[in-house]
Amino acid sequence: MISTGAGLARPFRFEQDTFAFANELVWEYRLDPRTGSMNTFRNEPRPLYAHRCFVLVRSCRQFFYHARFDPNLPEMDEEGYRRRIREVVSRSPRRPSLESEKIVIPGYDNLRRFSQAQEPLLKAECGGAWQSYFLRSHWRMTFPITHGQQARMARQLVEAFAQKPAPIVHVVRFPQLTINHGIILFGFQEATDSIRFEAYDPNTPAHPVELTYQRAKRAFWFPPNHYWPGGELKVIEVYRGWFY
Description:
two-stranded antiparallel ribbon, 6-stranded antiparallel β-barrel, 7 helices
């Protein structure tokens, strides 16, 4: 059984601990089946809630680390919930609170339901798009990332589940910017040739996605979707320590 770490009484569950709404995309990506190339089209009307992938994964883990939902308590008014949300997202995304210190969110049994009912309020209070760009971890993607480092990263991520579940990773193809994105891992399955990580992708909140580490190539692979043609990319764990 995976240890959940100090202050965490249970594992991260996709159907409970994720936001129901999406990080919207400025561009729509369509795969051309004849050529295999990905064509881009600007979404119209322009999305109102975009460039928040890192905001959403950080806030998601802050709710997992610092909030306790209680559906048996009466619902609050908007200002009451606003204060509770601000308190949650002001706490560290690196260290969980003790159970006795967690912020109680009344009237709902989990983040998924809370975000369905209070979507505008959460979007307004979790953070602006600029917070997805100005992260102290982003310096790492500008330096070379070798296959050996990716092999160590795969092992680090497996070990992270025994310390602090729900590791957040930065998936990137720098200096290309075909993908520059944040997701949360919440489970893994090891095989002879691979490690398959289950993940919450804020761009596709309806279902989990999969990130695969391929042992032979010592590389990570992310499948095609509506914003990425699929292929090899680099993975960096973030919110792990002072420099990340």
